[in-house]
Design brief:
The protein is α+β, with helices and mostly antiparallel strands. The protein has 26 helices and 22 strands.
Length: 715
Amino acid sequence: MDAGSSSKDGSQARCRLARFVPTWGAGGGIFGDMDHDSGADGGHDTGHGRPAVPVGHDRHAGHDPEMFRRRFQVCLALTVAVVATSDMVLDWFDYAPGFPGRSLVGPVLGSVIFWWGGWPFLVGAVREVRDRAPGMMLLVAMAISVAYAASLSTSLGAFDLDFWWELAALVTIMLLGHWQEMKAIGQARGALAALAELLPDDAERIGPDGEVLRVPLTELDVGDVVLVRPGGRVPADGRIVDGVAELDESTVTGESRPVTRQVGDRVVAGTVATDSAVRVRVEAVGDQTTLAGIQRLVAQAQQSGGRAQALADRFAALLFYVATGGAVLTALAWTALGDRDEAVVRTVTVLVIACPHALGLAIPLVIALSTGLAARSGVLVRDRLALERMRTVDAVLFDKTGTLTRGRHVVIGVAAAPGVGEDEVLRLAAGVEADSEHPLARAIVAAAAGRGGPALAGGFRSLPGRGVQAEIDGASYAVGGPTLLREWGLALPDELIPPARRWAGQGAAVLHLVRLPDTVLGLLALADEIRPEAREAITALRAEGVRTIAMITGDARAVAEAVAADLGFRPGVDEVFAEVLPADKDGKVTALQRRGLRVAMVGDGVNDAPALARADVGIAIGAGTDVAIESAGVVLASSDPRGVAGVLRLSRSAYRKMLQNLAWAAGYNVVALPLAAGVLAGVGLTLSPALAAVLMSASTIVVALNAQLLRRVRL
């Protein structure tokens, strides 16, 4: 296999992801309602053997910004020629060049500009009529068609207008406006489109006899073992079967620091092995990978709308009828006044100024930017309405285990009897527990690894219901709970009683190290490890004005209260729901809602799914189960609860930008339409069609720039 074929096939694999990138469209038909140009203008290759993001076939099919750029540049050159030979423009400079055929420059080049440069708008208008969804394209097509008809009629002597240069300028400015709009949307969707680029072109598959073969991603199957070299990307989801490496998972989770992954750990496609090679057994390929799933979530969010989008859609549809009616009334009024030439000019100006570019861009650009920014930070929006509702949340209910805590125990304290050091207690206890598979045993061994390591033990045996026992240096030791002490008739030394009571009051698991048959050497306290970032998450939510922070858990009240105190919960303000059965979690959400609170539920387990669905906003921790994720509107891929405050900030900022853009777009039309119709013509204040096109494009730029300010939101 040559390199070229490998790259090509790998690109095909990437395109399986790329097909999840949504085609864009909004109520106003921003990307218009047309097909790509044929040939070089549409469906072009990116230059790397990688097809461009595919285009859908609905009435909102995506336009190619490069196609509009090329048309704009050609039409601009032709427009300069038309303007330079226009009688009206030449009269302004008191210059009248004479050369054969000058009178044909306007009709010939103007016709080229109308039919070639204006073709995207004409095709889009036909689609809007066919789909019974009149919008921006139909308004643009009507404006340039009236201008073209008036120009032709003038050339044939029906009107006394020099309108070819207005038509040329109008089409050119429209092309410029569309080009800039699609550049803005394309930049906003950059995070989504970039996901398709994260997979390598091919993979190094390890054969049965150990040989390494470079193969296209399309040839990988579940069960294959692949080699990922230092600096290389993981080609498919799987588990490490050999090696240890620091993986950069920022593209998936938003976590900037590399994470250590070793044998047995799961890795996902698109992440990077930064320092050493690993071998990975493939568990999912193509559409089933985590990366493909993330793209689907982001695509769904960018295609979904919200209440603000519905408002914009209704206003855009209404604006079409208002503009059409206004244009008809304008034509009739100026004709009744005996000025047919001005009737044509005013009618075209009304149609141009009313084009809902800014209105159509107001919401889709904010949606694209907000979901793209969220995805880059490891926040995946499955439901746009959930993100929209997040701004109203005033209570956040966290599941404890796996959300505020890591869901695994760690040693939080060691106490030693007189004459024994704490490190010695930990060393001996880890030696006894070294061969045990119990989670508490693994926590003790892990704690000892940072303090000299476990003692060398032998003769390990389990004591069911009591603990474990092993031999160290010829002596017999045991580690266990209170039952172990009762069986051997032992009592705690006075010095160990206070820490034992304190830890028990905090809900920690207290284990005893005993040198059999009669000596208690020390205690070890173990508790579910609180995520270091959990405290920051709660502080950040308070800073955002959240009234109530709540925690829900099935653990005992003492355990829950201890965790809440450690996290800084405020007595009388924040709430702790302890000893809650899985089936009752959604009932606690309902109880908070009945008190008038808008609740965001944050959880990660199967038993959290009903509560996530019941809450006003369900937020799933990305490391959690598929059931929990499917029940949530927002997913924190990084499992970092600080992301909840980021979602809140993003929701408020995005909604604010939507309203600002809608206010600008609506207000602009309220002022501009009467002016375009000529209501102030009596005082000498009028708009030409070309100037109307400039102002309309300027309003679009204002909306686009305002939306770009979302990039300053800190997630």
